[in-house]
């Protein structure tokens, strides 16, 4: 058997949810896995009608453009349901919105029924904007609260999307042991629930890969005594970019900086996930006033900044945030560095050129200047070189 890439651990959902430790048993070592990696399907775009709408501002401008061109981009649209007195009751957002048409409102010809399509925001507390009883409708706003008018009601246009069937995950060249070995020898149909973990060449865990139910096995072509197992995952599969990253960690935590530099943006995001999973908690921060050196030669996108920052603070393959919110948490202490401190940003011209403002609908990554301002507000003295 070759060096295993994955280990199968027994899985107990109750123990997992309560944070219990020590319940996992090693059920198998596996040489490889097939059909493990998959990027999630793109978020569904949903169509809505803003009924009885009096458009203003950018919404009115986009509506005029849509009449000429067939559709027009609008960006992030916010609906604020109104209570019976006209006061706001929360917000509901639609991202990456396009205006795709309009028609006269049947109940009031001075108003329009405007059709828009977009992606539901992850920040929404519910899938559909809830209109309170006796409400006069909704206030329509832009991303930063710009007034775009109002509408009396909202209707969703149902769109059927074919269900995407994913293949089962196959674990190849496995050496079963313990309860799994006993289940296979006894001919049991219920093989149990397992967690799949990627391991390095020393069998140390790199990152959880999947959770699910074992449902079948066959003798493996990889050698006598080995089996191939079939698992129906109930967790999301690792993204395609994780394969390259886990291979970079295959000999253990990288000891050289910038091993992430050859990855694309998706790979760098996966690198940050892996660095977080391997961060050593409980170590003391270096004292305030420490100077850290940021290698900026490969910071061509926002994930690259956070990869480089993690290494500046915590060494090769180190972690110090994957986004602004996570960085803000790290700057509160217990992640390796405590402000105030100095950050010498070498080759800053690379990031200045690459992290520029680009027209973007919905969320966008921070720009170079926004990163500098964010760090300055949190007592990080950034010195560009």
Protein model, in words:
- This protein has 385 residues and is of the alpha+beta class.
- It has three domains: 6-40 and 164-238; 45-157; 243-384, Barnase, Chain D (2-Layer Sandwich), CATH 3.30.370.10.
- It has helices spanning 13-17, 57-69, 178-185, 240-248, 265-277, 302-314, 324-330, 348-354, 368-377; strands at residues 6-10, 26-34, 45-55, 72-81, 92-104, 112-120, 138-141, 147-157, 169-176, 193-199, 205-219, 227-233, 291-295, 341-346, 380-384.
- The strands form three sheets. Strands 1-2-9-12-11-10 form a six-stranded antiparallel β-barrel.
- Helix 4 (240-248) packs across helix 5 and helix 5 packs parallel to helix 6 (302-314).
Q: State the end-to-end distance.
A: 51 Å
Structural class: alpha+beta
Classified in CATH, the superfamily of the largest domain is: Barstar-like
CATH topology of the largest domain: Barnase, Chain D
Secondary-structure element order, as H and E? EHEEHEEEEEEHEEEHHEHHEHHE
Tell me, what is the CATH class of the largest domain? Alpha Beta
> What is the topology, as strand order, of the major beta sheet?
1-2-9-12-11-10
Residue-averaged pLDDT: 91
Give me the oligomer status. single chain
What's the total number of strands? 15
Fraction of residues in β-strands: 25-35%
The number of distinct helices, counting runs of at least 4 residues, comes to: 9
The rounded Rg comes to 26 Å
- Mind describing the biggest β-sheet? 6 strands, antiparallel, barrel
Helix content: 10-25%
Named CATH architecture of the largest domain: 2-Layer Sandwich
Can you tell me the number of structural domains? Answer: 3
């Amino acid at each position: 058997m070759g060096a295993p890439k994955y280990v199968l651990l027994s899985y107990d959902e109750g123990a997992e949810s309560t944070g219990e430790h020590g319940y996992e048993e090693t059920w198998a070592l596996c040489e490889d896995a097939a059909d493990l990696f998959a990027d999630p399907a793109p978020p569904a775009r949903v169509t809505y009608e803003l009924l009885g709408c009096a458009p203003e501002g950018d919404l009115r401008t986009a509506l005029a453009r849509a009449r000429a061109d067939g559709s027009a981009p609008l960006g992030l649209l916010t609906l604020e349901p109104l209570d019976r007195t006209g006061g706001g009751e929360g917000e509901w957002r639609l991202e990456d919105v396009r205006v795709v048409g309009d028609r006269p409102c049947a109940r009031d010809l001075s108003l329009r029924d405007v059709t828009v399509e977009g992606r539901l925001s992850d920040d929404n507390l519910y899938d559909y904007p809830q209109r309170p009883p006796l409400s006069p409708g909704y206030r329509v706003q832009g991303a930063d609260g710009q007034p775009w008018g109002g509408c009396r009601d909202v209707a969703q246009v149902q769109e059927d999307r074919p269900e995407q069937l994913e293949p089962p995950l196959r674990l190849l060249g496995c050496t079963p042991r313990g309860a799994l070995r006993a289940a296979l020898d006894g001919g049991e149909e219920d093989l149990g629930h397992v967690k799949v973990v990627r391991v390095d060449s020393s069998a140390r865990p790199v990152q959880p890969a999947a959770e699910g139910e074992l449902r079948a096995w066959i003798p493996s072509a990889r050698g006598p005594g080995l089996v191939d197992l079939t698992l129906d995952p109930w967790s999301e599969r690792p993204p395609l970019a994780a394969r390259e990253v886990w291979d970079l960690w295959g000999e253990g935590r990288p000891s050289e900086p910038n091993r992430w530099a050859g990855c694309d943006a998706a790979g760098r995001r996966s690198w940050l996930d892996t660095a977080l999973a391997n961060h050593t908690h409980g170590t003391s921060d270096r004292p305030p006033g420490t100077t850290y050196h940021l290698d900026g030669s490969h910071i061509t996108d926002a994930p690259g900044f956070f990869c480089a920052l993690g290494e500046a603070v915590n060494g090769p393959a180190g972690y110090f945030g994957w986004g602004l919110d996570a960085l803000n948490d790290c700057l509160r202490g217990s992640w390796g560095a405590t402000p105030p401190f100095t950050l010498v940003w070498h080759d800053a011209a690379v990031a200045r050129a690459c992290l520029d403002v680009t027209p973007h609908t919905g969320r966008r990554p921070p720009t170079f200047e926004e990163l500098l301002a964010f760090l300055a507000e949190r007592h990080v003295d950034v010195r560009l070189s």
